[in-house]
Automatic annotation (TrEMBL):
The lineage of its organism: Eukaryota, Viridiplantae, Streptophyta, Embryophyta, Tracheophyta. Belongs to the actin family. Pfam families: Actin. It comes from the Eukaryota. InterPro entries: Actin (IPR004000), ATPase_NBD (IPR043129). SMART domains: ACTIN. This is Actin family. CDD domains: ASKHA_NBD_Arp8-like. Signal peptide: none annotated. Residues 151-178 are annotated as: Disordered.
Length: 525
């Protein structure tokens, strides 16, 4: 912690009032770790860093049983129904009328050659650099000779306790030429997403749609273990913070508005008990964004990969009744992009399966970031897509992508985005029996007090079931959230201060809002 200079007559409290926040961060930011959890990605970095490490929130584990799925979420996915197809086509036509483009099954009267087309080749120079990059399959083997020497060097240089985990005891005995090669027990991040489906691995996503991915096929204990392994790997491999050093570090956990108290409690248990941090505080994403922007009152719109949230903040306090959770995000836009190209027969005849082959989702996300935008008129471009067959190198296919401005409109017409349907976590998962606020005590105080009603009926927190998601458009969600704020003067202020944040900027806002007071004292509050 920054201290007043010896020749200064300022007290500690006066020093905190006069010192610049950037100076405090530079002086104490080296031992402050910010962890921002998301459904698709987790962002971790030091408070003194300009940008965090953005790592896919997933882990691939080696499996020995044959017949198991390569992605655990395959067992939870459901097919799109006929009614959903009809609703999607109607939503497309509604978006098309606003964008002034032909309807779904309507061709341009003047022919495709003379259509009004917005060319975006080279429009965004930053994105054109990435648009032709090719992904390669992850090498899941480690040579025995190299792996035996590598952990010793790694532990000597960094004290990396997890380096030995990269040397599993499982050997591939099918081929004598590969008898000296061993499978890696666990693979993290983007490497895990690029594992070929033919390899004996199962991919796990600990968080889905803003909640712990608890299901009959994915236990709560395994979810917590996987989150611990992912965060531990990031701290060791990216930030180079060993287990012995972590007691001198403090953590700021930035959680989404979708998290419930049980999930927040489990995260604190992981950070303090399993990752060995000295202390930790929890911030909500909305509050972090507001204070990072230098505001105290605003309507925060956060569009994530799998969920989008809207929440209003007044004088630094989040208003629970204004929270809106929308069950769609950037990954749904990617799937919509694929559906539109297939409908218009613009997609090559290749096996693109975003659920069975996560590497295909990486490719679609790249195309979305490079070419999709909301602009009136028909929007087309020539792009290179790749087919990723099991264990084979990527094969390029040049094609003409069309209607690139329609997928983002799904944020306003959610029926256009047909997400996978994951069942809600079991109800008992949200029951925290150690939390007295979840007990409904019917106590009669003799005609006074609560008149025999449950004591905590008016308490806004500690719900015993997941927060309700609403299938409405983003514009409607913003309007409904602000109108739920109550006072007219507050509504006016919120309508004039709508803040749209993305995950990377949100992390930067969190760094600016990192607490300047003692984290240890805050953690006990």
């Amino acid at each position: 912690m920054a201290k007043p200079k010896p020749n200064s007559h300022l007290s500690w409290q006066d020093y905190l009032k006069t010192v610049a926040p950037t100076q405090i961060l530079s002086e104490r930011g080296a031992n402050l770790v910010v962890i921002n959890l998301g459904s698709a990605n987790v962002r971790v970095g030091l408070a003194m860093d300009e940008k965090p490490f953005n790592v896919p929130n997933c882990i691939a584990r080696y499996i020995t049983q044959s017949g198991k799925p390569t992605v655990v979420d395959q067992m939870l996915n459901t097919e799109v129904t006929t009614n959903q197809h009809v609703d999607r086509e109607r939503a497309y036509n509604s978006a098309a009328s606003l964008l002034k483009i032909p309807f779904l099954d309507e061709s341009s009267s003047s022919g495709s050659a003379s259509r009004k087309m917005g060319r975006i080749d080279g429009y965004n120079q930053a994105s054109t650099i990435k648009k032709d990059s090719v992904f390669t399959w992850t090498d899941v083997y480690e040579d025995e000779k190299i792996s035996l020497a590598s952990p010793a060097e790694t532990s000597a240089d960094k004290g990396d306790a997890s380096a030995s985990e990269a040397v599993p005891d499982v050997t591939d005995s099918k081929d004598t030429s590969e008898s000296k090669r061993k499978y890696r027990k666990m693979i993290f991040g983007e490497e895990a997403l690029k594992i070929s489906p033919k390899e004996p691995y199962c991919l796990y996503h600990p968080i889905r749609r803003g909640h712990f991915n608890v299901s009959p096929h994915y236990s709560a204990q395994r979810v917590c273990e996987d989150l611990t392994a992912i965060l531990d790997w990031i701290l060791l491999e990216k930030l180079h913070i060993t287990h012995k050093e972590r007691f001198s570090f403090h953590a700021v956990i930035v959680v989404p508005e979708t998290f419930d108290t049980r999930e927040i409690k489990e995260m604190l248990t992981i950070v303090l008990g399993e990752l060995y941090f000295n202390s930790a505080v929890v911030h909500q994403e909305g509050l972090s964004a507001v204070f990072g922007n230098g505001l105290t009152t605003a309507c925060i719109v956060n569009i994530g990969a799998q969920t989008s949230t809207v929440v209003c903040v007044e004088d630094g306090v989040s208003l629970p009744n204004t929270e809106k959770i929308l069950p769609f995000g950037g990954e749904d836009i990617c799937r919509c992009l694929l559906w539109i190209q297939r409908h218009y027969q613009k997609w090559p005849q290749i096996n693109t399966d975003v659920l069975a082959k996560p590497i295909d989702m990486l490719m679609l996300n790249q195309l979305k970031e490079s070419f999709c935008e909301i602009r009136a008129g028909e929007l087309e471009t020539v792009a290179t897509v790749h087919s990723y067959e099991e264990g084979m190198p990527a094969v390029p296919h040049k094609t003409n992508l069309t209607s690139l401005n329609v997928p983002p409109m799904g944020l306003f017409y959610p029926n256009l985005l047909v997400p996978e349907i994951f069942p809600q976590p079991p109800r008992q998962w949200f029951q925290d029996y150690e939390n007295m606020l979840e007990d409904t005590w019917n106590m009669d105080f003799g005609g006074g007090g609560n008149m025999g009603l449950p004591m905590w009926d008016s308490f806004a927190f500690s719900p015993s079931k997941p927060k309700k998601e609403e299938k409405i458009g983003l514009a409607e969600a913003i309007t409904s959230s602000i109108l739920s704020a109550g006072r007219i003067d507050l509504r006016r202020k919120l309508f004039s201060s709508i803040q749209l944040v993305d995950p990377e900027n949100l992390f930067f806002y969190t760094l600016k809002f990192s607490p300047c007071t003692s984290l240890k004292s805050c953690a006990t509050m």
